[in-house]
Amino acid sequence: METGSSGSCIDVAALSSLLQDSIEQNRLLVEELQKEREERRARPEGDYKRSRVQSAAVKAAVHDAYKRLKDAGQGGWDPSASFQSRRNSDVCTAVFREVQQVQQNLKECDVMYALKVYHKTFTDRRRREQRGEEQKFKEKNKRTERKRRKMQQRKKALLLSTNINETRKRELKAILCLDFMSSEESEEEEQEGSVQLIRRPLLPWLSKAAADAMASLDRKSLRRLSNKSKRMLARRITGPFSTTRSLPQSAPSWAVTCEL
Questions:
Q1: CA gap 207, 192 in Å, rounded
Q2: What is the Cα–Cα distance from 54 to 106, expressed in whole angstroms?
Q3: What is the pLDDT of residue 239?
Q4: 201 near 186, Cβ under 8 Å?
Q5: Which of 64, 93, 110, 168 is deepest in the core (most CB within 10 A)?
Q6: What are the CA-CA distances from residue 10 to residues 1, 13, 22, 203, 259 (Å)?
Q7: pLDDT (0 to 100) of residue 173
Q8: What is the pLDDT of residues 195-233, one digit of tens each?
C-alpha cells in the first residue's frame, strides 16, 4: 500500500492484478480473432465468405470507380440484362480499367468478383424497388444486423469472462448463433416520446437456463460499456407476442424447455 500526493492510499497490488487481468483478456481476444482469420483463410478459393472478407478494399475501389464513370456520363449497368451481356460487359471493362489506374496492385480476379457482386446487388435492388419491396428488405436487414451485433457482443463477453469455466463456455458457445438471437433484438422499433423502444418477441421453446445465460452475458457486456454508450442504448421490453421461428435442429437439450 502506498500513499499518493493527495494523501489517498493506492493499492499497488490490486492495480497490478487488474492490469494483469486486462492483459490476459486482451490476449485471449486476439487469439480468438486470429483463429477465426485462419479458419477463413483455410476455406477454398471459391468460397464466398472468404472472398467477401478479402475483397473489402476492392469493393470500395469498384464502387468509387463505377460512381466516377457514371458521374462522367459514361452510363451504367442495364438492370434488365445479364452480367455477361454486351452492355454490362463493356461497363465492367471500363470500371476495371478505372480501378487499375488508381490501384494497380489489385488482382483482376478480385476486381471482377467485386464487380459481379456489385452488379447483383444493383439488379436485385432495382427489382425490389419495382415490386415495392425495398423498404421491407431494408427492415429485414436491419433486424438481422441487430441480431448479429448482439451475438458478437455475447461471444466477446463469454470469451473475456473469468468466472465461467471452460466446460460451461463450450456449452454456451452452442447457443451463441443467430438462431438463438431473435428475442433480444429482432423486432420493430417505436418511439415513445424521446425514448426509442425495441420490442422483444418471446422464444417459446427457449429454456429458462438458456435465457438466464443470455441475460448474464448481456449484463457482462453492458458493464464494459462507457456511460455515454449506455445512455445511447435503446430501451427494450419483452413480449407480449411470441416468435414463430421453429426450434433449431442443433439446439442442445438443456437450452430447450421441457414443456414442448
A1: 31
A2: 11
A3: 52
A4: yes
A5: 110
A6: 6, 9, 19, 48, 54
A7: 92
A8: 455 556 667 888 889 989 988 998 888 888 777 776 666
Question: Cα–Cα distance between 216 and 239 in angstroms, integer?
Answer: 19
Lowest mean pLDDT among 70-84, 127-141, 243-257: 243-257
> Is this model's pTM higher than 0.90 or not?
no
Side-chain-side CA neighbours of 147 within 13 Å: the count stands at 19
Q: At what angle do helices 166-173 and 134-160 cross, to 10 degrees?
A: 170
Question: Among candidates 181, 134, 173, 131, which has minimal Cα distance to 156?
Answer: 173
- Contacts of 115 by beta carbon, 8 Å cutoff, 6+ apart: 62, 92, 95, 96
CB atoms within 10 A of CB 217: 21
Residue 149 cell numbers, joined: 451485433
**pLDDT value for 191:** 44
What is the SS3 assignment for 36-76? HHHHHHCCCCCCHHHHHHHCHHHHHHHHHHHHHHHHCCCCC
CA dist., res. 187 & res. 139, Å (int): 9
Separation in Å, CA 241 to CA 29, 101, 211, 214: 37, 55, 17, 19
- Work out the pLDDT band at 148, boundaries 50, 70, 90: confident
Q: How many residues does the chain have?
A: 260
C-alpha span between 166 and 171 (Å, rounded)? 9
Whole-number pLDDT of residue 65: 92
Q: Which helix (H) or strand (E) holds 110?
A: helix 108-131
Q: CA 130, 134, 137: angle at the middle one, nearest 5?
A: 140
pLDDT score, position 98: 92
